[in-house]
Amino acid sequence: DAGVTQSPTHLIKTRxxxxxxxxxxxxGHDTVxxxxxxxxxxxxxxxxxxxxEERQRGNFPDRFSGHQFPNYSSELNVNxxxxxxxxxxLCASSLQGQGGANVLTFGAGSxxxxx
Amino acid sequence: xxxxTQLGSHVSVSEGALVLLRCNYSSSVPPYLFWYVQYPNQGLxxxxxxxxxxxxxxxxxxxxxEFKKSETSFHLTKPSAHMSDAAEYFCAVSDGFQKxxxxxxxxxxxxx
Lengths: 115, 112
What we know:
The structure holds two protein chains of two kinds.
Chain A: E1 5-7, E2 10-13, E3 19-24, E4 31-37, E5 44-50, E6 53-57, E7 64-68, E8 74-78, E9 87-94, E10 105-106, E11 110-114
Parallel strand pairs in A: 2-11
Antiparallel strand pairs in A: 1-3, 3-8, 4-5, 4-9, 5-6, 7-8, 9-10, 9-11
Chain B: E1 3-7, E2 10-14, E3 19-26, E4 32-38, E5 44-50, E6 56-58, E7 64-68, E8 73-78, E9 87-94, E10 100-102, E11 106-111
């Protein structure tokens, strides 16, 4: 059973560019969340998607946007990249209806470097 | 708002020694608490979770954690460290809607 898969694993961009990261959730999961993990820090919640809608959003600017497709996969888009956007971007999937006790399954992440 | 504080960015132990990683939480409602482990260049793997069923929670790889409401703590322990335990450990609290708030992490170093 495949877990959460993310692509690409590594990428390098320059300031001002745009990037799209992709995530396929674990089989049976319908909710996708995105987290940003800067070097030496804990993951920070960006947003969560369920039923193709953004359900929750963390303290991130509008440059960060996302999408969820009918097959539950998701994309994270970041526009006008800044040096500070360099981080590991983690996708996590889960099943709605489980409340706060639900366990998130994380992918291995996409490491973005902005030069 | 929920938050967690992990005391000690680095913890060093010898192989076979007790592992103790500290986590204190802040929550206005009964919390759901989690410990995740992250190996180099990998994502996060769940070690264990507390959901109010029992205060002592057993997880994978011999780890366990005890929920102490009076101390607002959820410390992670393992009786005997193994070299393979060297990793970054994150404590997290749930807001009740599947959003996790993570601590800053503790890097566990295990020496032979």
